[in-house]
Amino acid sequence: MTAAPLLPEIQVEEQIPAARLREFFSRDRLLSAYALADLDAADIERARWWSASRGDAIVAAALVVEALPFRPCFATGETEALLAIFREGLHEPRLVVSTPPAGRVAVEAVYRFERIDRMHRMAVDSGSFQPRVTHRVTRLGPDELEDVIDLYGYASRSYFTPERLARELYFGIYSGTSLVSAAGTHVRSQRSGLAAVGNVLTRVGYRDRGMATSVTSTVTVAAFEQHPDVVLNVRQDNSPAIAVYQRLGYHVHAPFVEGPAVRRNALDRLFGRMR
Q: Which end of the chain is more exposed for a tag (fewer CB within 10 A), N or C?
């Protein structure tokens, strides 16, 4: 009986050349859209990344955006290799982790999710997009910053900056002088041909009037001027939102899980290995 060949040992590295990491993430560019855009904007967003390789082949990777206080982290790849990244590379006390469902095991061996959202990554291209705009929609830039913060709440002030509103594509609907609905791009990557739509929000008193559809549609149209593919995230149990996005031509590309996570203490991690 011949023994199965041993797999090469996993090697974890930090800040490998961005081109190599981009090649790995591009194997599923729609699921990795945020990471690819963050990689392109690494100087702006202060991104750091780790890879795990077997021999010369990258089999897992994780990227953290340090410019944002909540430390978003995207991680994907082989479970054992991801586990090595989280044990040996990442030492942030707190992260907001996004990973395919198979990656959850690796994350939870080192971090404890405080909440887990089961999400869909949806995507659309210009060929399948069906625009629906039934309201007057306005481009939102640095001059509208205070209106944007009033809509999203004071806590959003650290996220919404004049630079972000100038860099990204935000559109909104006004009722008089009040901004009542808005959406925009979280990130964009011209190199990878991707834009991610998000922050879709309508004030409670103005919901069920098609405003979210109008602003999402307008942002998507604007994104297509520079990017061939557009993605967005939605909770798997948010059937009304999924229906809206599907009417615009978006389709479910892949599931993933996401949530805030805190690093386990050494004893907790030890028991985790023993279980």
A: N
Tens-digit pLDDT profile for residues 43-63: 666 899 999 999 999 999 999
Query: Same structural domain for residues 101 and 156?
Result: no
Give pLDDT tens digits for 168-201.
999 999 999 999 999 999 999 999 999 999 999 9
Domain region containing 53: 10-119+257-274
Q: Are 110 and 83 in contact (CB under 8 A)?
A: yes
H helix and E strand count, the chain? 10, 13
Query: In this structure, how many other beta carbons lie within 10 angstroms of the beta carbon of residue 82?
Result: 29
* 124, part of any domain: no
The total number of structural domains in the chain stands at: 2
Q: Where residue 71 sits, what CATH number does that domain have?
A: 3.40.630
What are the φ and ψ backbone dihedral angles of 126, each rounded to 5 degrees? -65, -25
Q: Are 215 and 131 in contact (CB under 8 A)?
A: no
**Do 101 and 70 fall into the same domain?**
yes
* Whole-number Å distance between alpha carbons of 3 and 24: 30
